[in-house]
């Protein structure tokens, strides 16, 4: 089974700046051992895993060593991928179901 993984630099519009996170889009839930192995191989501070769920996405974050309950930059990176890859319309709120509860993000045009 193929897996799509993106690397996003959050908090910047310049390559190789900001705070990097991996975003992994999944079609179905995978076991924790597999998620941990992917995060370890990515070797970034966080890897975000997105699984479609109800009216949003289940979102989990893993460091190379363990799962964490909250990660802001990987959440923003996840929303960025959903909007830029046209997986979510720009006028629709991104909804993430996480260990820390419901998190949301909205698209805004860059006003420079």
Automatic annotation (TrEMBL):
It comes from the Bacteria. Gene3D superfamilies: Diaminopimelate Epimerase, Chain A, domain 1. Keywords: Isomerase. One of its GO terms (cellular component) is cytoplasm. InterPro entries: Phenazine_PhzF-like. GO terms for molecular function: isomerase activity. Belongs to the PhzF family. This is Phenazine biosynthesis protein PhzF family.
């Amino acid at each position: 089974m193929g897996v799509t993984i993106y690397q996003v630099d959050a908090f910047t519009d310049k390559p190789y700046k900001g705070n990097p996170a991996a975003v992994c889009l999944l079609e179905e839930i995978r076991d924790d051992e597999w998620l941990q192995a992917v995060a370890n191989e990515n070797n970034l501070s966080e890897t975000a895993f997105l699984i479609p769920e109800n009216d949003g996405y289940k979102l989990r974050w893993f460091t190379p060593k363990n799962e964490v309950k909250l990660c802001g930059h990987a959440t923003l990176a996840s929303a960025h991928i959903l909007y830029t890859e046209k997986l979510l319309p720009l006028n629709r709120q991104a909804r993430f179901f996480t260990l820390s509860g419901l998190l949301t993000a909205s698209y805004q045009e860059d006003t420079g």
